[in-house]
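Q: Can I see a sequence and its folded structure?
A: Here is a first one.
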Amino acid sequence: MNEAESYKTIDQPAVAEYKDRGSKFLAFANPILKVEDFKKQLQYLKKEHPKASHHCFAYRIGTDGNTFRVSDDGEPAGSAGKPILGQIDSKELTNIAVIVVRYFGGSLLGVPGLINSYKTVTSLVLQLTPIVKKQIEENYIVNFDYTLVNEVMIILKQCNCTIISQDMQLFCNIATGIPKSRLTEVLYRLKELQNVDTKKLV
């Protein structure tokens, strides 16, 4: 069985609102690449909504889907973070965080009511942001002589590689994301050029 060559995520933030018996739920969906991105977002929302009673969240990172976390932030156990993550997983998304800010409206919603509210507002926010398919890439540094810039660029372009950064001097280096499905081909073609050095980025 070949490994997955792409994954689904979002590439722009979105906000949705849901109300139930006076309580207001605001869901913020954001694309993230690492835990630090999420932490910044959470800090920002806590500053923006200091009077909110809860800041619950779930995130999932990485193409293996193994990096994830949920938080009920004081709500009854399992009533907030899990329903949020459940919606992320039902759409098979990764590299995404959803933070739900709740303003308490005076009426207790009970665990079923809370699960429904967190699930609904997350579902709404995920409908508002386009889901994109991205190819799984391996990151490499390619070093080469400036005279070879055209040949190197043609290979990277033809094979849908992502240019992460480039430093074009007399001697050039490019950080590139190579689609997993075309890794062998790209490395082979680059190796065929004289004086081109490739090194995997860890």
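Q: Show me another, different protein.
A: A second, unrelated one:
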Amino acid sequence: MIEIRTLGRTSVAVDGEPLSGEAAWPKSLALLVYMAREPGPDRRDEILGVLWPDRDEKRARRALNQLLYTLRKTSPQLTLESVEDAVDFGREVWLDVEEFERRLEADDPEGAVALYEGPFLADLAVNEPDFDHWADRQRADLQRKFRKAALELAGQARESGDLDGAVTHCRRLVDSDTLDDEAQHLLIESLYLRGDRVAALRQYDVYRDLLARELEVEPLEHTRQLVERIRGEPQASEEPVEVKDDRRSRPAVDTGRDVGARPPRRLQGPPLRRSWLVAGAMAVVAVLAVVFWPWRADGPGGAGDEVLTAEAMRVAVLPFTPHGLGEDDDGLSVGVAQLLALNLEGLGSLEVVPHHRVVETWERDGFGGMTAFTAESLGVLAGHVQATLLVLGDIHGSGDELRIVAELVGGRTGAVLAQADVRGPRDSLFALLDELAASLTEEVQAASDSTGRPAGSGN
């Protein structure tokens, strides 16, 4: 059995054993996913047009044949078959996307939502426009199906009085699309109905700030009215609050989803016995404010006045600069950055920006053409990807040896917070990347432990 997962984190396993080495490189995974998702044997010319559109036919066929040879050599259990001018799997394939759609067709929205761990190929970047467009179409369609199912489950939970369940499903929706007006409104309302008045107001503040930053607009009128009533409702009141549905349009944003009319709602104020929880929550917030005091990348009053907290350590790994890798290794620098991002995701307290989003911004906004970065240009890039920390790196090739150098810098000032330099044979690349990720996080942690504050905070 070949098991292919694409929702959230991309992986391929055969008989329970994950692929590794060159079989797990972005181009290899892209080929396997495309073959599994497209029905029937895939003709070579279709694959060439998606994965090597900029190469002439002779060079593109050579690249495909080399990739197939590598996959057959390193992972013969994939049993890739060539029939005339087509390529197909020689054994049963399980694809999470198809299982997700089967569960929806079987009227099992809960099972489908549980399987949806994130956007389609969220962590796979191959830098080929045709493949990226194909993946984008798949991603948008699956996101719409997930949204419809999760909204249905949230509504059912609300109607049955399961407010914890409603909050859980609403959070899943918001995590998948932070600009989803419907999901944000439902989450704020469900939190309040559950008795979490402070959490509801905090969620609104986060959403309002996000809209202002991303789209320069305010939340919809009916959401603002909801929050005004929550803020004006006495803590101890048992009187219901009528929420009118006066929905007005803000500047059009094509989200690719249908938004139906919302019926009037009635909110029940949280009872008096919960007031002590609010006081306790406020005390916890005060303690956290002391523990995680803001820090600046180059000391108090330093240039850029960079403020980072334990909740704000969000890192983006930029594409690495290749040196002496050769034409056949054009995907190596992309793969290194992508895999390093995945490794950092599992270490320390760093939140990692999805790599496909970094690459999209990198290409769209012209950063790939820069030969050197200033503190100002790094600050602009960090703002575009919503990161407080950036990883810049170089990868050098010499025969079978690799050297990878990386720096972790402050997003606003460009101040270097940690450095790492690893080297070794190409066939130990995964071990090198593990060492690189561990070294970066250890340096940040060591600096933090020595001062009692996060790294880069100064005296």
